[in-house]
Amino acid sequence: MAKIAFKMQLKPGCKGIYEQRHAEIWPELKTLLKEAGVSDYSIFLDESTNILFAVQEQSSGQSSQHLGSHPIVQRWWEYMADIMETNPDNSPVSQPLKQVFYMP
Predict the structure, then answer these.
(1) Fewer CB near the last or first residue (10 Å), C or N of the chain?
(2) Domain span at 85
(3) pLDDT tens profile 10-28
(4) Do residues 91 and 77 make contact, with C-beta atoms less than 8 angstroms apart?
(5) CATH number at residue 34
(6) 41-73 burial, b if ≥16 CB within 10 A, otherwise e?
């Protein structure tokens, strides 16, 4: 398993709706992520900066990068675009983070 982390930017005042939308995550999106090898996926919020910090495990040899072209993911991005900083294709602006410490 590979563990990856990245950060995204939530728009001010959107914490509640972000949490609600993720509490009601579409079953087909969850299935797609799992089938693509994504597991143990968590997103944290730094409320002082509205920065979202995500961590997920990916099956060895698999990458979730190809998921961006899937229609379910594109619909989710469109659904979330009003409350997050996004790129022109509605994908969230995200920045990969480098792991600098790990304690098993």
Answers:
(1) C
(2) 2-92
(3) 999 999 999 999 999 999 9
(4) yes
(5) 3.30.70.100
(6) eebeeeeeebebebebebeeeeebeebeeeeeb
Q: How far apart are CA 74 and CA 87, in angstroms?
A: 12
Structure tokens at 7: 């950060």
Q: 42 — phi, psi (to 5°)?
A: -130, 145
Q: Which residues are catalytic?
A: 22
Give pLDDT tens digits for 48-84.
999 999 999 998 665 566 889 999 999 999 999 999 9
- Look at residues 3, 2, 75 and name the one whose alpha carbon lies nearest to residue 32: 75
| Extended strands (E) in 10-98 | 38-46, 51-58, 94-97
**CA dist., res. 10 & res. 83, Å (int):** 6
